Amino acid sequence: MKALIAFVAALALVAANSPTPVGKVVCYYDSRSYVRESQARMLPMDLDPALSFCTHLMYGYAGVHPDTYKMVPLNENLDVDRTHANYRAITNFKGKYPALKPMLSVGGDVDTEDPQKYNLLLESPQARTTFVNSAVLLAEQHGFDGIDLAWQFPKTKPKKIRSTWGSIWHGIKKTFATTPVDDKETEHREGFTALVREMKQALSLKPNMQLSVTILPNVNASIYIDVPAIINHVDFVNLETFDYSTPQRNPKEADYTAPIYTPQNRNELLNSNAAVNYFTQAGAPTYKIIVGIATFGRTWALDSDSEIAGVPPIHANGPGEAGPYTKTEGLLSYPEVCAKLINPNHQKGMRPHLRKVTDPSKRFGTYAFRVPDDNGEGGLWVSYEDPDTAGQKAAFVKSRGLGGISIVDLSMDDFRGLCTSDKYPILRAAKYRL
Ligand SMILES: *[C@@H]1O[C@H](CO)[C@@H](O)[C@H](O)[C@H]1NC(C)=O
């Protein structure tokens, strides 16, 4: 009898864990790409070649009004005004791709004005009601099929990755009381649970509106996400398991930014596998877990103190110089990285190309670097995702029986097909391995 009950329970578990035979491919679209220059300028029509691979299209990003707590377009002119009307341009893709679910994502670390509002909103039931009602209205008015909460929680403090004096340093650190990043952690955790519940309630009154949560990089889910309390209210949770180390957070030490598993001597919580484990151990069904794949690299400048072998973690001297298109220190889109891996005909006046170092274990990711010249200049170290590593992440997702992958974001994948002739090579590679 006991065996029978166990057998039936196991069957029920299998059923609960596999309602979708096809993995989700959640594609993020960062609308800031509309105003980038030349090759990097992406218009909504440039999304078309990607969309037969995507199950969801996240419009990034809406924001929170700092005074009213309403959910609002972050760029009225671009998002909703008649001349551009990007919200509509995106949701109109449903005509050509009927299975595609366009959703409106809020936050995403893009809504930087008055960041404290994300905490304050969670503390006030009234503000939450205003936010929920305005969000549902905004999404509905523009034809979105759901809302994604890419909530801007306080970030964890950056940790020193490793040093020769690692254990001694660790000992010293322990003797100081660490100040918490957020002295209202519990209140914010409970407020977010309430927000998710209230949002679900409002969305369930509309036909076919989905709700998802995106855990942004360096947000500690074990502090803010009460998995058992929210998981039944959301369609999926997208874990942005990248940017574990960035040149802004760790300017003096470059390292793998998005390992699947823990590299030797690193913090065991800072990788995709650990992020997934937190959710599964807290009872989330695996099919609701989506793992994020970044389409960009993080770069650091190397100087004459950096070890010439290039092996991470490696001494660095702040962010690497901005890319020609993304124009942001410490950041390169995939096509920008790929252009640096070749120097056609060894053109004079150009820096030597970067040497790519792949990871035969398929666990930690790829990096590329060049040591500084004799004047100590031009050194660069970049950790990035390429089609091979994106495929490895998708294979990880598949082997764990998870719900799918997300691509963050389409505008930094090679949407023009400049590296090889394929457009969206990272998206494609990941999709094929899923
Ligand atoms: C996240 O929070 C938990 C609980 O407070 C803590 O044990 C863990 O070290 C934190 N993780 C990181 C990466 O800071």
From TrEMBL:
Instruction: Print the keywords alphabetically.
Output: Disulfide bond, Glycoprotein, Secreted, Signal
List the molecular function annotations (GO) for this entry: chitin binding; chitinase activity
Where it mainly occurs, coarsely classed, is secreted
GO CC term (a single one):
extracellular region
Record localization:
Secreted
Its BP terms in the Gene Ontology are: carbohydrate metabolic process; chitin catabolic process
Alphabetized CDD domains for the sequence? GH18_IDGF
One family name in Pfam for this protein: Glyco_hydro_18
The source's domain of life comes to Eukaryota
The stretch of residues making up the signal peptide is 1-16
Matching SUPFAM superfamilies:
(Trans)glycosidases, Chitinase insertion domain
Q: Report domain GH18 positions.
A: 23-434
InterPro entries per record? Chitinase_II/V-like_cat, Chitinase_insertion_sf, GH, Glyco_hydro18_cat, Glycosyl_Hydrlase_18, IDGF
Q: What PANTHER family does the record tag this protein with? A: CHITINASE, CHITINASE-LIKE PROTEIN IDGF1-RELATED
Q: Which family does it belong to?
A: Belongs to the glycosyl hydrolase 18 family. IDGF subfamily.
Name of the protein described by the UniProt record: Chitinase-like protein EN03
The source organism is: Papilio machaon (Old World swallowtail butterfly)
